[in-house]
Amino acid sequence: MEAKLTRGETEINHIEYSMVIILCCVIFIIVSPFVYQIYYNMSVSAAKTSTTGTIDYVKALYTNGNLEEEIGLPFTIEFTKDSLIAYDNGEKITLQTTRKIELDGKKPESGTVTIDEDGKVIVKELDFGWRTCNKEKDGDITCE
What we know:
It contains 1 helix and 7 strands.
């Protein structure tokens, strides 16, 4: 024997389902700013970590380059999407490396990392695709 819903029971079911959907929407509206903030903080943290890895990579390139030939300061590595370009004292150079040096983190799509005459590191517009990072001589890494 089949149980049939009366018209009043069907309307109550529709109202209950509508209330559940409305409640879910309200919860989503309340929670979404928190989820966005978590995502933002994680992406900034990832960009800072990749910037730190890139700085270490440039320092290793400089050190390794000095083992092969004398490289002066300021020493700059300019990153492009497909390669990197090294500058010694403002002049473009070709790095001779005998050791394999790997980049820890994501490779930047563009930007420069410079080791100045004092040994301080300056980062300009290091772009990872989702965040761009900078660092002044004595400052912290900032990513936007």
